[in-house]
Structures are given as structure tokens and as C-alpha cells.
């Protein structure tokens, strides 16, 4: 029996896991008792990890078309086709689409290969579907994509406001921490702002069932009320904030009736928020996945900047991330508009520093294509060679049938994944077996900037190789042997840490230069540590902005003038479909569906629909319902409930054609995106039901 300390591969809470492995390879999972994120807790998904190693469906060898191939043949083909395409059509004719499931070291190599050596910024990530609006909102307000707070703030707060976040199902261990804190300090209040009455309402002192998409109107009303009640922190604003007047003017003209909230609930919320110094506003996909997601984020940040409630214990805005390494991917430049270490691709000085450090032959000067745009370019034939890593866009991207057609029409598609038969792998030209959780080795960053190690528990299945290793091999075959001569994740991590020191000198927040000299043994033993991690702070840091200094040119936090633009109305005769996660499945179910007990929670894809909508459409409980939009259709089981608002049904995102032939709900979601962040609005499809 051996015990391995590692990190859960699911949500952004980033719980520490102890895996006990016996000689037969049976894995038993417990929460790590001293990991700062969870202190021994795990949710249903994390505790079932040991049930997900079933080899059925596992990709064990490279495939070219329908036949198995050796690694040399497959990687020669990938390198040759990418090189030929670049030679004939230029670097922007190729693209990578990667994933928040990748480890930081995988992400780093993918970015270096695409941006520094191929010379295109056409690499984007499924984090675009998850966090891009927060990234853009943070950058507009703080100058960098910085999460200010730490998890302890949730326990020290006197008021927690949850916005667009079903924390009980989507970040369960943070929810458990709040439940425990509220039990210890019953005076702590929780407000849940969500059009749906979710499981998270169980701990809410107040549920605000706002009209879908009306968050800007609500937080503008709050900013206006903060001013009217004389609760602006004038000293903080005077010393540390810019844009206050413009933001306030925009907020003052806002009509809060768009929220649809009754006067009593709205007033209670405003008075609680304004009267409680220690307030944390937690926000997630209900804010991000919107055609006005970035404005929603800034409307929230405005209120914290105006009151100086940031960088202090028990208060601040707090974005909780969806994926295990969405934060690591953001830090390492996984988005098409970013470079590593929170440097900007469109900033010449930033580019020069990265190019000089990488000794790379080329560097794109413009941002690449964001996820939705990238697949539209594939569909138009402009992207001729595409490599999809560790993600399943045929199920997860909006307008999924169009995405599928685009991939099918692309000249050359590579998929690296651990499963042989995902909807995306089935239509690839080359499929490469990658290691999965329990085999991978490297680092991830959670929602509070905590870098933790994922460690291998079992040897790779079949011929599977690590993503960083596969990409490095292709980089070497494309002619860049020195740049991709990595032999272990520690090599990559040290290089990345060294680059972060150069970034920090350019007034960037992300700095892990204190780890650049780790030996292999020290990397192996690395304890969870929150960045910045520098020579002066080798054990990491607490909350950011404690000194009121931001990363903008003026060092001031920026308040933004934002207006409620997106429609907040239900759609009349048609319905406004909301989508999201459920408690016991993860993304496209490649791992969680292997656990029988996880599959007992919700066995089928379903549509939560209000009783009036069900009646109007002749739908009875448990009927099969056809959900149709201009983009496509899905068939789901009816679940009639007043937990959803009239006119605003809800469906989960997880099911693939493998588990439910017509269950891919993304087929009905249009590819409408936020104009700033490029994040799709996954919560406002116009549908009919029958
Ligand atoms: Fe894993 Fe998130 Fe559950 Fe923690 S809360 S065990 S990170 S899924």
C-alpha cells in the first residue's frame, strides 16, 4: 500500500486528495486533512474518484483514421501536416484548442509551441466558456487578472453574496466551508442571487430570484444606493480608485425594475450589503456566461472599489472558477489574447520579453481567435490543421452541430485525449492517447491562487503519454529541438517560474520566481502555496491589494461605467433556456460516468420546466421533451418544478451522444458571445418545447 498526495481534477476549489493504492492497483480516496482548500473534506465527485479508473473506453494507442499506429508514425504525421500547412498557408492557418483540465506544464508548452515557435496566437481554451468574462473584468478594473481574496475570507465574512453560483452543487467544498462557518457564527448572513431556486438556497437568509441577465441593473442600483446612503469610502477612492464619477453617473441612471425583484427583497439586500463591512461577493457562471458578462463582473467590482472592501480580511469580490486549472491556464497564457505570466500579447514590451526569454524565432503581434471565432474560422476553411487537447467541443461548445460540421470539414484534425470515443475523437484524423488524472504529474492553480501538485498514482494506461511530452516531441520534430528539450514537468515549471520574475518586473501580479531554483526533489515535494511566491515571500502570499496598489498604469483600481444592455425578459411564446452543471457529473462525463453511484443522482439529461410552461405545452412530468431552437434540438426528460421561473427552463450540459443520443444541449445554444471577453452566453437560448 502506498499513499500519494494529489489534487482533485474537477472544480476550481482544488481540494487536496490522499490516494491509497494497493498492490493490485485499487485506489481508495480520502480528503487531504491538511490541504488548505478542503482540510479533509471532499464532495461526492471527489470522493468517487477511485471508481473512475475503469479502463473501458480508454484510448491505449495512437490511431490514424481507424487503425492503430506507432507513436513515431503518428507524431511524424502531425508534425509534417502542421509544418506543410504553415509553409503553404501561413501560421494563422493552424490552431490549438486546449482545456482547463490540462496541467500548467502542459499549457505552458502548448503556448510556447503555438505563440513562440509556430508564430500564431490561434490557441484558445475551453476556459473561454467558463472564466473569460472574469478575466476581462479583472483586467479592466485591476490592470491584471487578479483574484484578490482567499478562501478564509468566506469564513470571516459577515455577509456572503452569491451571484450566479449554485455553490452547493458546483463548488461543494466551499459551500461546506460556508455552512460550517455559519453554524459557528449564526449572525453570518448569506444572500443567493439566482433566477433559479437551487440547492444553494438551503443556506440563504435571502434568495433574490432576479430576472435572468439583470445583474448589471442590480449592482448599478447598489452602487447608486451606496452613494445615496453616504457609504462611499472617500479616503480609499481618493487615494486608490479612478473612474468613480463616470461609474456612478452610469449607475444612477439605471432602472432597477429590470431585475424584477420586489421592493422588500431589493431593499433588504441593499441595506445588508451597505451595512456590512465584511462582505464577500462570490460570482460564477451566471455572471460569466452572458453576452454582457464582462460588464456584470465590473458592476460587482465597482461596488467593492467604491467601498474599499477589497484586500482586507473577510471582504472582497471573489470569482470561483469552474475547472481544476482554469486559473493555471489563465496564468500561463492559455487564452488567445494572453502571453504567459499575465503578459499581454498586444503589448510590444511584453512580447519582446517573452520572445527574448524563449529565444523564439517569431511572435504574433495580435490576439488570436477566441473559441467561438476559432471554430467559425475552421468552418470557413481558414484553419486547415487543428489540434484539440483534453476537451470535447462537439459536446461543449454552443451551436454544437455546426462545430461538429466544421471539424468534419477541416483538412487535418488531431485529438489528444484519454477516451477513445468522445464525440470529438470520433471525427478526428489522428487520435493520440494522453494520460489522465491519476497518471499526470505537474501543477494546478485553484480559485484562490493556490498552486498544488497533481501527482501520478498509477502508471500511464497502454501507450498513453503526457500532453507536455507529446507536444514537446512534435515541437522537436518540427525543428525546434532545443526549445522543447524537456524531460520532466519540473524542467518546465522552473522555466515558467523564471519567466514570471521577468513579468513581475513589468508590473505584473503573477510572480512565482521564488520557485525557479527548485530541485527535482523539491518540486516533487512542493506543498500547496499561494502566489505571489518570491524570494521575499518563499512561502507564498495572502490576499492581494492589501496596500491599495493595483496593476494599472496609475496604480489605481478602475471603476467602469456600465449599463444594463442585455435583455432581461423571458421570451414570450418561446422559452429562455438556461444551462449549467449538476452535482454529480463533470463536463462531458468521460470520468464521472464510470462511477455507478454518481450516475444514480441524475440518470438522464432533463429539462426543469415551470408548471405553467409545461401545461401550456402539453407536457407531463417525465415525458420526453423535444427542445428546439434555430440551431438544433435535443430530447430531454421533463422535470416539472417551480424551482425555475416561468418562461426560463433549465437543462444540464453534461450528456454526450454516447450516453444519450439526443442529449447534447449545446446543439440548441446559439453562439452569441460577450463582445469584450468572447465568452458565449450559455444561458439565454430561445427555444420551443414539445
Ligand atoms: Fe473536487 Fe471540487 Fe469536489 Fe473539491 S469541491 S472534491 S475540487 S469537485
Q: Which key phrases capture this entry?
A:
single chain; binds iron/sulfur cluster; 690 residues; 4 iron, 4 sulfur cluster binding; globular; N-terminal domain of TfIIb; molybdopterin cofactor binding; 31% helix; Dimethylsulfoxide Reductase, domain 2; Rossmann fold; oxidoreductase; six-stranded mixed sheet; 4 domains; nitrate assimilation; alpha/beta
Walkthrough of the structure:
- With about 700 residues, the protein is α/β, with parallel strands linked by helices.
- It has four domains: about 1-50, N-terminal domain of TfIIb; about 65-130 and about 325-485, Rossmann fold, CATH 3.40.50; about 130-320, Dimethylsulfoxide Reductase, domain 2; about 575-690, Barwin-like endoglucanases, CATH 2.40.40.
- About 30% of the residues lie in helices and about 15% in strands.
- The chain contains 23 helices and 28 strands.
- The strands form seven sheets. The chain has a seven-stranded mixed sheet, with helices on both faces. A six-stranded mixed sheet has the order 24-26-25-28-23-27. Strands 10-9-8-12-13 form a five-stranded parallel sheet.
- β14 (about 340) and β15 form a beta hairpin.
- α2 (about 70-90) packs across α19.
- The longest helix has 19 residues, at about 70-90.
- The chain starts with a strand and ends with a strand.
- The relative contact order is 0.17.
- Iron/sulfur cluster binds near residues 10, 15, 43, 46 and 172.
- Iron/sulfur cluster binds near residues 10, 42 and 45.
- This is Nitrate reductase.
- Belongs to the prokaryotic molybdopterin-containing oxidoreductase family. NasA/NapA/NarB subfamily.
- Keywords: 4Fe-4S, Iron, Iron-sulfur, Metal-binding, Molybdenum, Nitrate assimilation, Oxidoreductase.
- Its EC number is 1.7.99.4.
- GO terms for molecular function: 4 iron, 4 sulfur cluster binding; metal ion binding; molybdopterin cofactor binding; oxidoreductase activity.
